[in-house]
Amino acid sequence: MKRFIDLKIGIIGGGQLGKMIAQEAKKMGLFVTILDPTPNSPASQIADKQIISDFNNEEKIEELVNECDITTFEIEHINTEILKRLGKDGKNIFPTSRVLEIIKDKSRQKEFLNKFNIPTSRWKRVNDNGFIDKDLGFPVVQKACRGGYDGRGVYIIKNKDDIENRLKTESFLEEYIDFEKELAIMVARNRHGEIRCYPLVEMVFDKEENICDMIIAPARVDENIYKEASEIAAKCVRALNGIGVFGVEMFLTKDKKILVNEIAPRVHNSGHYTIEGCVTSQFEQHIRCIAGLPLGSTELIVPTVVMNILGEKNHYGTADYIGVNEALEIPGVSVHIYGKKEIKPYRKMGHVTIVDKQIEKAIEKAYRVKNVLKAISKEA
Fold first, then answer.
1. CA–CA separation, 372 vs 380, rounded Å?
2. Which of the 8 DSSP states describes residue 118?
3. What pLDDT, on the 0 to 100 scale, is given for residue 68?
4. Contact present, 13 and 55 (Cβ < 8 Å)
5. Is the per-residue pLDDT at 265 higher than 70?
6. CATH code of domain 4-93
7. Which of 239, 235, 257, 267 is nearest to 75 (CA)?
8. Per the database record, which ranges form the ATP-grasp domain (predicted)?
């Protein structure tokens, strides 16, 4: 049996999530190879090696898996057929191709949730002639089956006139939920079946772009909501037989019901607070899960808020940052820059964590950070 220190970890995807997984793997002394189409991707700045390839290239994915003892991923939209074949050959790929196939098609996710009696919103498959449904009514949410992330692949049809602007792709309709809060919880499950939930958090979204803007940990909800959400999230991961860290996004309705919105089979933006806020970060926990190590503590050390650093509107080109000094003058602030070379409007360029013994003070500081710290283009 190979010594832990000699393990080689492969990561499909070289973005910020891959970078932060790689950082934890390197802290443990492990060799890391990533696969990503972008030379000098964020994760390549940390990893020992990068294979430059798109996420559907079977030959390159096989090369990565064969070079590594354990392979994982930071993105869903990859070739699952080659992962399935390599998994059958005994390669260690976590989460498995089965989990990835269920999750990356959002209609299959909904079928999975229904099958295991996990509470979720009502939904229906549609075709081009089926965008009016008497049961779901208006407004109704159209979701792309594949490819949507960071608010993309979702369109709210408010009335008949909106139908002509619908997403022109394979999709389904979902009941519009007039929710009180959007919540999320990270769940870790290792190769031995040990499972632990992180604290429940609130997600605040940018209304203009429908992209997550702020994470508040812990969520400001009653203890019974916290307990029920944790039980539902753990049920999701057990039902998937998932190995790794998973992000489970939820709605809290105005009548205090919890509905699962979506599951991410990987570390997630809503878990970034764990780096400064918890005993074990989601990224270290993910390495523990896939390597068969004992799970670390998920205890929240201090209330934490995460503010995403998004590319400024109308900014394209070489990335630059202003207000870093001013942000770091605020007590409890830590700045994480992902190392993406090119900026686009609303692209996730980094995040800031703010810790404080009082959550409301942390939120207040987060808005101060938002006012001074900006991701811009040098050419602007």
1. 17
2. -
3. 98
4. yes
5. yes
6. 3.40.50.20
7. 267
8. 110-291
Domain coordinates in residue numbering, the chain = 4-93, 122-175, 179-377
Q: Which residues are annotated as a binding site for ATP?
A: 106, 143, 174-177, 182, 261-262
Handedness of CA 269, 275, 276, 277 (dihedral sign): positive
Comparing CA positions, the residue from 348, 200, 361, 363 lying closest to residue 270 is: 200
Backbone angles phi, psi at 218, to 5 degrees: -85, 165
Contact between 184 and 178 under an 8 Å Cβ cutoff? The reply is no
Q: Which CATH fold would you assign to the domain 122-175?
A: Dna Ligase; domain 1 (3.30.1490)
Residues belonging to the binding site are 106, 143, 174-177, 182, 261-262
Tokens at residue 261, please?
Answer: 């919105």
pLDDT greater at residue 327 or residue 142: 327
- 119 burial type by CB count under 10 A (0-12 exposed, 13-18 middle, 19+ buried): middle
Determine contact, residues 339/293, Cβ cutoff 8 Å.
no
In the prediction, which pLDDT does 224 show?
Answer: 96
What pLDDT, on the 0 to 100 scale, is given for residue 127? 62
What are the phi and psi torsion angles at 294 (to 5°)?
-60, 145
In the predicted structure, residue 1 carries a pLDDT above the cut 70: no
**In 3-state terms, what secondary structure has residue 128?**
coil
Predicted structure pTM score? 0.94
If pLDDT is split at 50, 70 and 90, which confidence band does 113 have? very high
pLDDT, residue 212, reads: 82
Tokens 């089926």 appear where?
130
Question: For the domain 179-377, what is the CATH code?
Answer: 3.30.470.20
